[in-house]
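Example 9 (inverse folding). The structure is encoded as follows.
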């Protein structure tokens, strides 16, 4: 288990002088779950992008702390992310997407691990088909596989149940339950039934 802490202090984000959110502060650590809620347009995805180092805040700080000390820039190898704005390589198969995800991180593809993960997400029977032939729910499960294949200690899920049927939702719930026992889990959603439990909630509808 990676002992990581996430410290967010007085975050503010503006776009074209419009304040998306302000004064967002919280601390979570490995073994805990952060729930980010708020109506559409409240800034959930923006906050997720800032935590993931995709966007920079207008004000405030995001700091990860590991046993070796603070991490001002978190290595992407420590993060797995699922989001509507992250796309798969549709001209590749599901297997090839996972192989590429590992290669980009300098890791040797483990075919057994790839097969096992795709089996777990009910994609193994289609793992050599081009992703462009997948349904929206299958693509969502493939995105989750991409986020998890390198076994990141930090899993960030933006609207994770989007386009999933009951079996897909069940699989994602099992994965989240397992991850939050030994990792740091961040979930952004409008649907509070997506999570059975959480440790900290950031409600972007609330005044800050």
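The amino acid assigned to each position is listed next.
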């Amino acid at each position: 288990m990676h002992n990581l802490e996430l410290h967010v202090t007085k975050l503010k984000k503006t776009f074209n002088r419009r304040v998306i959110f302000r004064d967002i502060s919280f601390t979570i650590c490995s073994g805990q779950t952060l729930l980010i809620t708020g109506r559409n347009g409240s800034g959930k995805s923006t906050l997720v992008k800032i935590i993931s180092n995709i966007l920079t805040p207008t004000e405030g700080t995001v700091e990860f702390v590991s046993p070796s000390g603070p991490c001002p820039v978190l290595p992407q190898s420590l993060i797995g992310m699922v989001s509507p704005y992250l796309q798969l390589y549709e001209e590749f198969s599901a297997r090839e997407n996972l192989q590429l995800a590992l290669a980009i991180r300098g890791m040797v593809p483990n075919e057994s691990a790839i097969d096992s993960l795709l089996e777990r997400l009910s994609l193994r029977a289609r793992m050599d088909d081009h992703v462009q032939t997948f349904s929206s729910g299958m693509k969502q499960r493939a995105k989750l596989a991409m986020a998890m294949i390198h076994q990141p200690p930090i899993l960030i899920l933006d609207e994770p149940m989007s386009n999933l049927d009951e079996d897909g939702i069940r699989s994602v719930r099992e994965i989240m339950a397992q991850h939050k026992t030994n990792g740091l889990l961040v979930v952004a959603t409008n649907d509070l039934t997506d999570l059975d439990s959480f440790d900290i909630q950031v409600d972007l509808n609330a005044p800050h």
